[in-house]
Amino acid sequence: MFKDSYLYTDSNTVSSRYSEQPWFVLGTSGHYHRQGDSNPVISQYYSFEANEQGEQVVAVPDGCIDIVFGGGIDNPCALVCGSKLEACIAGLKYKERYFGVRFAPGMIPSFLNIDAQDILAKNIPLNELVPGAEMLIEHIVNAESITDQVSSFSHFFHTIVGRKFTALTLHTLHVIERTAGCIQINDLASETGYTARTLQRQFRKETGMTPKMLCRIMRCQAALHAINHRGTVLFSALSQDLGFSDQAHFTREFSQLIHSTPANYRQQVAIKPYSSYIFQH
Fold first, then answer.
1. Which of 98, 85, 106, 97 has its CA nearest to residue 43?
2. Would you call 199 helix, strand, or coil by DSSP?
3. Do residues 180 and 18 make contact, with C-beta atoms less than 8 angstroms apart?
4. Which among 16, 59, 137, 245 could bridge 104 via Cys, Cβ 3.0 to 4.6 Å?
5. What percent of the chain has pLDDT above 90?
6. Which pTM does this prediction carry?
7. Between vectors from CA 248 to CA 244 and to CA 250, what angle results, nearest 5°?
8. Is-contact 166 116, C-beta < 8 A?
9. Cα–Cα nearest to 221, from 104, 116, 138, 125
10. What's the CATH class of domain 164-276?
11. Is residue 214 a contact partner of residue 16, using CB atoms and an 8 Å limit?
């Protein structure tokens, strides 16, 4: 068995290599600016301006909590957005500039005063969860660059740490990430030495998600990553690599979570390479 708990920081974090919102990237009117962070609790910072299709831009399940700032100078606002359970309209506004902080998959920053299950698939104003955040919101929305926005966010929160997870949940997160979600609940249970029922109950209590849901998300995120960054992708081979029973199963899962069939999505990123939208700071 494991120790009672770990602090979900430093070496005890889950990699965030599969945590993309592809329609945010493809729905920018210019470049999608992205910046990493040395703090392993944070997946990435990002900034972009929504194009004319902004109101139809879709948010997809990614297993992450985002804090998204927008509204412009006249109406600065920020929402804490829990991971979606299925693809849904994000409701972005044309020519509005957004700045976001995306946390690592399964990560809940300690400064958010909310139960894990209460943020899943919800959008909640930041100032309802963090009293006194109004000044931060105004500074970030009025900032001229993503560098200034990151600086304002980091200054306000100083050191960002994650909530304490039990070693069971932490290990489960690591295994799901390591396998890109290609693992069954019974195999997860065998690895930990706990029953599947205990594992699922504890994991959901601490992350808000079931292990099965996060596995589904991570597999589709892995598929997105492959389509976005590899050259030629054979969907029959990709579906097998990701543990789907067959290509039809892969297509159904991808379509439900990503709001596009794999083939249609590949056509879109073939018109203009995905990486050409991204400006890495």
1. 106
2. helix
3. yes
4. 16
5. 78
6. 0.91
7. 40
8. no
9. 104
10. mainly alpha
11. no
